[in-house]
Write a structure and sequence with these properties.
single chain; 118 residues; alpha+beta; 3 helices
């Protein structure tokens, strides 16, 4: 997706998100619980959670945050939209039958939703 397509998708997403919908933009899904909270969901590239570690999950969460930061740099509308909102970054796993939340970060507080064997 080029820069202009990204800006256009973000502009449309903001309208939908304000109405309580979520929308996938690139590799991230953005959604609002209410006017004060924004969730940013990224999906793990791991095909089998048995091979995931805490460190690999943390690396993917960092990548989610980096991608979202790049979006806010590319779109002034998105940068303005998030002002005053609590941002929740989530790493999820698509099991094929639904989504499994692996971890989330709110205000630099990391919460694990799964236990790793290693």
């Amino acid at each position: 997706m080029n820069s202009e397509e990204l800006k256009h998708r973000i502009k449309n997403a903001i309208t939908l998100i304000e109405d309580g919908h979520s929308l996938k933009i690139g590799d991230l899904t953005l959604g609002c619980k209410d006017k004060n909270h924004l969730s940013i969901i990224g999906w793990t590239s791991t095909n089998n959670m048995d091979f995931m570690t805490e460190q690999s999950a943390l690396n993917e969460l960092i990548e989610i945050k980096t991608l979202f930061t790049k979006m806010t740099i590319a779109s002034n509308e998105l940068a303005n939209f998030i002002i005053g909102k609590q941002i929740e970054y989530c790493l999820n796993y698509d099991s094929g039958k639904g989504s499994i939340e692996i971890c989330k970060e709110i205000n630099n507080n990391l919460t694990w939703k799964v236990d790793f064997k290693n």
